[in-house]
């Protein structure tokens, strides 16, 4: 298995696991069972393109463990997707679900493609064929996909329809993050970003920072945009934003409504006339109270970690901070870290709510969704802070230790099938 997962992101996830497992003093046999993914699936996804040509895309799904319930995790469409990246994301999802005390194991999936280059028809054909190839491996009691980078509610609707057509009846609980009219949950779309904002405000209270926080957001997709909007609503000033097209900065604050309109028209934040352009790397180094990396993995390197000028580092993305950067941050106690498996957990928590609502055919109000979400995030933050105080560990190590400990205990109690 190990040679199949030769990827720097998976190596980083394993390094984090090993550090936490050492602190937990996990026995070697239990450590090995807890660490390695249960199932790795690779599929060929042939699609007839609009040109008439048939192109075969590579698709993946990794299920990390099933000890606490079905696996849960997003589907991403991106050129960089490979088996190792997907396995790393599935592993992080395992610790995240356990930290939130959800009855799930971690999973992740994806297709190596550039969704920006696909027509709507091509994207639908790709989604339906990918879903068909995974029919034997996904299910409402075994593995439940959700949207991620490059996918959205519409992709989930196509996945649900493909699976339901195969089953012969509607199965809304097969995916989460789908449109509300076909079984989606109110609040799900905004949940990850609003969860980031909630935790940032709680961290600001702990750090005794004023409500007029200066915020920089790297990544203006679903997570970054909703985090920025919610923080602005509670009094923050967003002074910097970047995405794949470029970066902008304005000390007096950026008009987010105008920026959203610009990004929708032009495909990104580049060229926004009401802010100054700035280098993609330099945006991370500007003075601010809160820095939110909400794009992709491994952007906060050791070098950048030594130069960032924030009080709160809120990881809206999965794995944005490298282990080398963590060593630097350990020497910078003035920076309060909200680790990814806590900070961006609002999405999977609300996905759990959606799954429960679909299973019961009983739906909640948006207020009920967010009241429950914030209670769970608050409890997880409190548990991490207690572990930090008890073991003098970093926020990341405390969060990982709690998640890994809960998964390992479930495996120990269930035993090893002969």
Automatic annotation (TrEMBL):
The record marks 148 as: Important for catalysis. Gene3D superfamilies: Leucine Dehydrogenase, chain A, domain 1, NAD(P)-binding Rossmann-like Domain. Residues 185-415 form the Glutamate/phenylalanine/leucine/valine/L-tryptophan dehydrogenase C-terminal domain. The keyword Glycoprotein does not apply. One of its GO terms (biological process) is L-glutamate catabolic process. The keyword Oxidoreductase applies. SMART domains: ELFV_dehydrog (SM00839). The active site is at 108 (proton donor). GO terms for molecular function: glutamate dehydrogenase (NAD+) activity; nucleotide binding. NAD(+) binds at residues 192, 222. Keywords: NAD, Nucleotide-binding, Oxidoreductase. Belongs to the Glu/Leu/Phe/Val dehydrogenases family. PANTHER family: GLUTAMATE DEHYDROGENASE, GLUTAMATE DEHYDROGENASE 1, MITOCHONDRIAL. This is Glutamate dehydrogenase.
């Amino acid at each position: 298995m190990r040679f199949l997962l030769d990827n720097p992101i998976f190596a980083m996830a394993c390094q984090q696991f090993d550090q936490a497992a050492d602190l937990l003093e996990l026995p070697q046999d239990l450590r090995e069972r807890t660490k390695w993914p249960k199932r790795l699936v690779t599929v060929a996804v042939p699609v007839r393109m609009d040109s008439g040509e048939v192109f075969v895309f590579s698709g993946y799904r990794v299920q990390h463990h099933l000890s606490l319930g079905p696996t849960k995790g997003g589907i991403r469409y991106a050129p960089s997707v490979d088996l190792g990246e997907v396995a790393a994301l599935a592993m992080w999802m395992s610790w995240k679900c356990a930290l939130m005390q959800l009855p799930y194991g971690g999973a992740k999936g994806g297709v190596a493609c550039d969704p920006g280059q696909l027509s709507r028809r091509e994207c639908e054909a790709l989604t339906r064929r990918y879903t068909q190839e995974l029919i034997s491996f996904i299910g409402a009691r075994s593995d439940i996909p959700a949207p991620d980078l490059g996918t959205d509610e519409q992709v989930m609707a196509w996945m649900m329809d493909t699976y339901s057509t195969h089953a012969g009846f509607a199965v809304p609980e097969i995916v989460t993050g789908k449109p509300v009219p076909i079984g989606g949950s109110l609040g799900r779309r905004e949940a990850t970003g609003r969860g980031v904002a909630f935790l940032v405000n709680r961290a600001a209270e702990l750090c005794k920072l004023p409500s007029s926080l200066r915020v920089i957001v790297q990544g203006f997709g679903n997570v970054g945009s909703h985090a920025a909007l919610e923080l602005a609503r509670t009094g923050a000033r967003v002074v910097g934003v970047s995405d794949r097209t470029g970066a902008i900065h304005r000390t007096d604050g950026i008009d987010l409504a105008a920026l959203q309109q610009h990004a929708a028209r032009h495909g990104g934040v580049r060229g926004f006339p009401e802010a100054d352009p700035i280098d993609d790397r330099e945006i991370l180094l500007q003075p601010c109270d809160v820095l939110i990396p909400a794009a992709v993995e491994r952007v906060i390197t050791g070098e950048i970690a030594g130069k960032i000028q924030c009080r709160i580092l809120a990881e809206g993305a999965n794995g944005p901070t490298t282990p080398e950067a963590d060593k630097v941050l350990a020497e910078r106690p003035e920076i309060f870290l909200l680790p990814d498996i806590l900070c961006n957990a609002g999405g999977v928590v609300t996905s759990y709510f959606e799954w429960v609502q679909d299973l019961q055919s009983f739906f909640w109000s948006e207020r009920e969704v967010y009241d429950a979400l914030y209670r769970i995030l608050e409890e997880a933050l409190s548990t991490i802070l207690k572990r930090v105080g008890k073991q003098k560990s970093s926020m990341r190590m405390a969060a990982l230790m709690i998640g890994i400990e809960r998964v390992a205990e479930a495996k120990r109690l269930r035993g090893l099938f002969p």
